[in-house]
Amino acid sequence: MGLGRVPSLPFLLRQVRVGVVATGLTVVALVVSYFGLDRAPFDRVGLASVLGIAAVGGAAIAALPWPRLFETTGMRFLYVWSVADIVLISLAVAATGGGRSDLFLLYTLTTFFFVASYPPIAQLALLIFTAASYTIVLVITGWKITAGALVGRLSILAVLAYLASYLSKELLDRVQAEAAARQESDERAGFMSGVVKAGRDMTLDPSQVVEVALDGVAGLGFGDAGFVALREDGSVSHMVAARGRFDGDGSAPPDVVDLVVAQGETVSIDRSEDDGRGGTDGMIGSPVWVGGWMAAVLVGRTRDARSIARHRVEAFELLATSAGLALENAGRYEEERQTVERLEETERLKSDFLTSVSHELRTPLTSILGNAVTLERSWQQLDDATRRELIASLSNRAKELEEKVTELVDVSGSDSATRGGFHALDLSTLLTTTAEQLRGPLSQHRFVVDVRPGLETLGDGVLLSQAVRNLLDNAATHTPAGTTVTLLADLGEPEDIVVTVRDDGPGIAVADLPYLGARFFRGGDLNVRPKGLGLGLALASSALELHGTVLEVESDEGRGARFTFHLRALQRSDARVGGNGEVSHGSP
Fold it and tell me: Which residues contact 121 (CB under 8 A, 6 or more apart)?
């Protein structure tokens, strides 16, 4: 047994079986040797009694419930058994001649058995008891042995005990090493199976990936688990999800997370003493790499005071790697899904645009063609007034068609426009002039112009005028008659001009807001919305982008809309001119 190692239950049960079989074989051999063959005179009754007691004792030993006994006091029964065997052997030696008896050899059997079965202190005690029992037998039977022979026999017995102890220790070390290796192999296989299952269960849902990773950490024997998200600078963002005590306090273990971030690799912390937090905790953390950067740290904690085995660390690392790959795949899937949605939306806009173009161009073309055919076939029959009316209608429809084609050409031109033609502009004059040009389309609305005079900026007058024109035309088209449309321009932050077109119409549907400014997008029902190609806001946005600004849209459905953009001011003034040409002061 070596240096006090506790034998396993299967080993002890095997020792009991071997001891019972050895006892039975010894009894049979002695019966044959002493009662079946010629022998020198001996105490036949005494030896028969000893053998009978040994046989009955062996049967009783075999019948005991050793598995249950070893859970309580089984080792004590083994010690009693060994002592009884030594006593019986001593009685057999006394019955067969004392010092002259060759049954002294039976002591070697019990010595080998207890050396192979018991811890060192028990081995020494039984060896001393054996020597004392033999000496007592010699004294009772009149010695019949020389002192040298006695010392020789006892010395041989001691040497046998030493050799048996050594061989037993080596054998048990090898058996235990193989058992440990087998246990580690089984654990490794179990851990790898758990990691493989976790990898198989990870879907393209990031939250589900995190939950599966935490389940995998629990499967590796860590009672506490956490998934800690990191910012791009490596600092802790938040605990995404947790199990065990991490879930209770909702906080990340800063020591192991900081070490993982600093070293960029898996870190395990073994604690064999109380760490001041109410237990002996071993912790491990492994980086979760997503797209080449450390996005999170997977953390596990156990109350096991022993060090975390290497194969356990390897399984933990593999689990973190699987989580990172799953999250990366989830990110790519989401990007592809959004790309597909954008392509589908583009295709929808394209289809909508083609429908709109077909309608918008076909209507004036049909009228033009109808009027032209009428004039061609019935010129002589028509009076002058009718001719003039048809020609005027043809001209109006041709102008309408020209406007649609010009709008399409403007879209194409906005892609290739540059800032090369920018120069200082009197923005106040440009805005009021553009507003006056739109009073016709806005005649059914209450149109308010509130522009501070003297506003100057750097830009392209044609593009800016077109942008404002499109914003006002958009308001006229999508708001009912009688509503108010307002054009505002004022100084904002230092060196900043704020231009706003607002209305108190029906507003913009929330679902349409993200698409405003996209080419060919037209919100609302295809069958009831106003005519148009859906290019006005797109042209305005393109023109403003060339001026280094963006069109900002705000709307509460049912409460109107507000379109705003900012330009860099070149000059400021405190005066303001209203829509009726009067000068006023202050802010709107």
Answer: 4
Instruction: Name the H helices within 379-460.
Output: 384-416, 427-437
pLDDT score recorded for residue 564: 93
Reading the block at residue 225, the tokens are 């688990």
C-alpha to C-alpha distances, 329 to 23, 202, 336, 394, 556, nearest whole angstrom:
69, 10, 10, 60, 38
Determine the 3-state secondary structure of 73 from DSSP.
coil
CB of 287 within 8 A of CB of 266? yes
| Dist CA 74 CA 133 (whole Å) | 25
What's the CA gap between 14 and 166, in Å, rounded?
A: 20
Closest CA to 308 of 222, 185, 426, 204: 222
Per-residue exposure over 96-126, b if at least 16 CB sit within 10 Å of its own CB, e if not:
bbbbebebbebbbbbbbbbbbbbeeebbeeb
On the CB side of 473, CA atoms within 13 Å amount to 20
What is the Cα–Cα distance from 31 to 34, expressed in whole angstroms?
A: 6
DSSP annotation string for 316-327: HHHHHHHHHHHH
Per-residue pLDDT averaged across 499-521, rounded?
A: 73
126-151 pLDDT per residue, tens:
999 999 999 999 999 988 889 899 99
Determine the straight-line distance between the first and last CA of the chain, rounded to whole angstroms. Answer: 98
* Its pTM surpasses 0.85: no
- Separation CA 54–CA 77 (nearest Å): 16
Only one residue has tokens 């235990």, namely 176
Name every residue whose Cβ is closer than 8 Å to that of residue 107 and which is 6 or more positions away in sequence: 86, 89, 130, 134, 157
Alpha-carbon distance of 362 to 368, in angstroms, equals: 10
d(CA 552, CA 513): 11
Answer yes or no: are the C-beta atoms of 465 and 575 closer than 8 Å.
no
Cβ atoms of 92 and 30 closer than 8 Å: yes
Q: Which two tokens stand for residue 584?
A: 């006023």
351 or 459, greater pLDDT: 459
Residue 513 half-sphere exposure toward CB, CA atoms < 13 A: 15
- Cβ proximity of 583 and 452 under 8 Å: no
pLDDT tens, position by position, 284-324: 999 999 988 899 999 988 876 557 888 888 888 999 999 99
CA distance 442 to 444: 5
**Hey, what are 231's tokens?**
């910012």
- Alpha carbon 78 to chain centroid, angstroms: 55
